[in-house]
């Protein structure tokens, strides 16, 4: 006697055949709608493909996902298969995938009342997309992909469809991976090996995508002669050269290769943009000197196991730089990432180690301080009061820096986030604190706000009691402070 499973599958496949004509019609309608929508969007879109799930594919899915155990009727099964119709929006580059997703999210802006997380466009209320869930979604193979569930309402029951947004390299890779790994049920002795190879191929294709994007952007920009663009291009080149030079020496010295690309970018920004100034003639001359310096480093031997030695005790200009510099100096020979960052910096810079160290610490503090919106405070406080408030906030930042204790705090993208958070705190302070006396009474609220926001940024441990005390303090003060969602999650620990 045949298993009940196969009788159920035959019923489903027969139902699929009965619905095929209407599904083909809906598939075509969806294809035309999204093609017309994206054609004028200018988001890298190049093509669209649609398909109705085949009998063979549906049968495999039912068995693979145990749908025959989850759904006891064909109606329930069709209601819960997310990709009975599939649409693939094809674009040029991986970056374009995000742009197309953002465009769809902006276009489908009307909330569906009775279906959570689904949105529709006023142009066609019958087409609804799940834009409330996190994107891109992580696949079983660990690769992330934009995969959006949708519903088409053309009759008594909605028809499920799925949208995938894929760049050319991801289309190429996923087609191979789908056949070799995902739907290859032959027993392969070196299965893990093939998966590793496929991941390596994916990484290589991603690199190719980035290179093609750079070429495309270069043509789009035309023959730009701006200083900023020249600096950016030269700095990218220098970062790669520095990484290549030191990567070999790290491997020779400690036996393993460490990823320190972000450190190289931060060092190049400091050495060739800040330290050398913005004059185009001097910048070009100093870059030539920089290349010569790198050539000499390439011929030298560096031992990354040795401790960094300072010629004398560093001298700092104020409390902020003293706190920060003293902390990093303590870590520099105990923690490898700190040692690596400053060893590379000291090798490139021409001064002695201690002067290079003093200069960099001063540069880092000034980089943050100069971009704080101090003018917001000056309308409520005197110059001296404003200075005092800013100094207090900067000291608090340095204390948080010491607790986080990560070289990532020196990276440009992280510094931008730090500055953004500092300015959010200053904006809250500006809106709620009107006198210096009030600041002296309630400054703990804003110092704690800065701490909680930065700790959340770095996924640091925060005691739930601390968050509750902070919220109670804000409520008591009647301050109007926006609470970031990331802070509230710590309350659930109670």
Summarize the structure.
With 494 residues, the chain is an alpha+beta fold. The protein has helices at 4-39, 55-64, 67-70, 74-80, 94-107, 168-182, 191-221, 227-254, 261-274, 280-298, 319-331, 336-348, 353-369, 375-378, 383-404, 412-432, 436-457, 464-477, 485-488, and strands at residues 45-52, 85-91, 110-111, 118-121, 124-130, 137-138, 144-153, 158-167. It folds into 3 domains: 4-176, Beta Polymerase, domain 2; 227-314 and 332-356, no CATH class; 371-493, no CATH class.
Topology:
Blueprint: H1 4-39, E1 45-52, H2 55-64, H3 67-70, H4 74-80, E2 85-91, H5 94-107, E3 110-111, E4 118-121, E5 124-130, E6 137-138, E7 144-153, E8 158-167, H6 168-182, H7 191-221, H8 227-254, H9 261-274, H10 280-298, H11 319-331, H12 336-348, H13 353-369, H14 375-378, H15 383-404, H16 412-432, H17 436-457, H18 464-477, H19 485-488
Parallel strand pairs: 2-8
Antiparallel strand pairs: 1-2, 3-4, 4-5, 5-7, 6-7, 7-8
